[in-house]
Write a structure and sequence with these properties.
The chain is an alpha/beta fold. About 35% of the residues lie in helices and about 10% in strands. It folds into two domains: about 170 residues, 3-Layer(aba) Sandwich (D-Maltodextrin-Binding Protein, domain 2), CATH 3.40.190; about 210 residues, Periplasmic binding protein-like II (D-Maltodextrin-Binding Protein, domain 2, 3-Layer(aba) Sandwich). The protein is globular and about 95 Å long.
């Protein structure tokens, strides 16, 4: 008997209950795998052990991975009574105290000299061109004349590997952009944010909750977010007007309008309602399926059980010729291109895909709205880039000052404005206080509106990391493709084994993968 997805149960009852989510943004970095099956709490952070013994040297705020030199404080000399031996001890104590004082003075002077010296920091970016970024660096340099910024735009292909290798060789940039799901892979290359730049309390009050889940562990902050992105629902306004339907807000709405937006010539699809159901030509399919898993209450670290099976079955219904929801097939063009050509009425995609759509078809009338939800359980998808500082940089404090400016209200606003001069819009804001300034924007508004309940997991597409995301996506792709010939439980069992192996490899779970039955 076919499993009926929870997502389609009681479609006429808007008050139908749905499972509460169990994912909390990702998974937690843990110690190396141990021989048990205990999973750690599913939060995507990297805990850093804080020394509990006050005699243990604390981390240097400039380079948190290198213990600070602890200068012993000499006690005042105790008056000694007569005798040559006592006098010698007194003079030895005085000499030691003088040397310690001189060392402290020299170190302080050297520090002041380093701070007053003009330095040039290098910064690796991915998306902004030189002209757009130069407007920000010019503002920063005017306010910080002792710091110059050299911006170098990188190709996203093999960027993570290139970045790590350069930093490990001591030749990498001082500052750089990295994906929010890379913290586990870059833990040795990331300098922690000094408390003089931002404290965890300040971070939490400034940015949307998903950022704290992904980037903060205790008192440790691994980077500062400049932007928010993930998935939004793209709407072809002309196709919607012709069909006489409005943008859906729930998955029940999607189910109801699919027949009205789907146009067929016999068995051939002429116009599709929504691009769902396949892995080969639904771009960002891994983000979409991961979002559906979360919304339906499935755990992405376990990837088994009724909720996960229902989700996979529901996703496949849209590409099943024998299902009433059939509206998509492997024979259609890639989803973004099909949307730009007017062949599909809806796609789920990140904000930056709007630039691609506009470049392909400048005349297409479209907008982006928040993703559909299940009743009573709002979950959105987050996949974004973060600004970080190299643990090997000689100018960490200067680089953090630049990152602080870049992610400030002033810097983020300026970057959005500059980006809008050459394309549809700039980077959607990560700061809570800036959300209202773009909330009604036809392209970026959806992403800030749903940012308060957005979550992430390392199934983010287009990171080109050849690491945790790409490896997990391959297992999910195999699962989607295997649904045609295998039961959902069997498909997910195989995928779960692969997931556990990958997650434990990167220290994200403590469990060893179970032996297949």
């Amino acid at each position: 008997m076919m499993i009926v997805p929870k997502i389609t149960m009681d479609t006429e009852d808007p008050n139908a209950s749905s499972a509460q989510h169990t994912i909390s943004g990702g998974v937690e970095i843990a110690p190396p795998p141990v021989a048990d099956s205990t999973l750690v709490q599913e939060t995507f952070v990297v805990p850093v052990a804080q020394p509990s013994d006050p005699s243990i040297p604390q981390s240097d705020p400039i380079n948190p991975y290198v213990p600070s030199i602890q200068i012993p404080v000499m006690p005042p000399p105790t008056p000694l009574k007569g005798g040559v031996h006592s006098k010698r001890l007194f003079f030895v104590g005085v000499i030691i105290a003088v040397f310690v004082l001189a060392f402290v003075i020299i170190k302080a002077f050297a520090s002041k000299t380093a701070e007053s010296k003009e330095v040039t920091i290098t910064y690796w970016g991915l998306w902004e061109n030189d002209a757009t970024f130069r407007a920000l660096t010019a503002d920063f340099e005017a306010k910080n004349p002792k710091i110059k910024v050299q911006y170098i735009k990188q190709s996203p292909k093999q960027y993570r590997e290139r970045l790590q290798s350069a930093i490990n060789r001591g030749e990498g940039p001082d500052g750089f952009r990295f994906h929010n799901t890379w913290v586990a892979m870059l833990r040795n290359q990331l300098a922690l944010v000094p408390p003089t730049i931002m404290t965890p309390a300040e971070f939490t009050s400034a940015f949307f909750p998903v950022f704290a889940s992904d980037l903060v562990a205790g008192q440790s902050i691994f980077g500062l977010p400049l932007m928010i992105d993930g998935l939004g629902l793209y709407i072809n306004e002309d196709l919607f007007a012709t069909a006489g339907v409005t943008p859906p807000t729930t998955w029940t709405d999607v189910i109801n309008i699919v027949p009205k937006l789907t146009v067929k010539n016999g068995s051939t699809l002429v116009t599709s309602a929504i691009a769902l159901g396949t892995a080969s030509n639904v771009e960002h399919f891994s983000d979409i399926v991961a979002l559906m898993f979360m919304q339906n209450g499935a755990s992405l670290t376990k990837l088994s059980g009724k909720e996960a099976e229902e989700t996979l079955v529901f996703y496949k219904k849209f590409s099943d010729p024998n299902d009433p929801l059939y509206t998509w097939s492997d024979g259609i063009d890639m989803s973004v291109s099909a949307f730009a050509a007017g062949r599909v009425a809806m796609i789920l995609a990140p904000s930056w895909r709007a630039h691609d759509v506009k470049a392909i078809n400048p005349n297409l009338r479209f907008k982006i709205v928040p993703v559909p939800q299940l009743p009573g359980n709002s979950v959105a998808w987050a996949s974004y880039w973060v600004e970080g500082v190299s643990s090997k940089s000689k100018y960490q404090m200067q680089t953090w000052e630049f990152v602080k400016y870049l992610t400030s209200v002033e810097g983020a606003t300026r970057l959005y404005t500059e980006g809008s001069k050459t394309r549809l819009f700039g980077e959607p804001f990560s700061r809570i206080e800036l959300a209202n300034t773009i909330a009604e924007d036809s392209f970026t508004g959806a992403y800030v509106k749903q940012a308060t309940f957005a979550r992430s997991f390392p199934l983010a597409s287009r990171t080109y990391d050849n690491g945790i995301n790409d490896k997990l996506i391959k297992y999910l792709e195999d699962a989607v493709n295997s649904m045609a010939t295998n039961a959902p439980s069997k498909v997910l069992e195989t995928a779960s084994l692969g997931f556990r192996q990958v997650l434990s490899t990167y220290g994200l779970i403590t469990a060893a993968a179970p032996t297949p039955k």
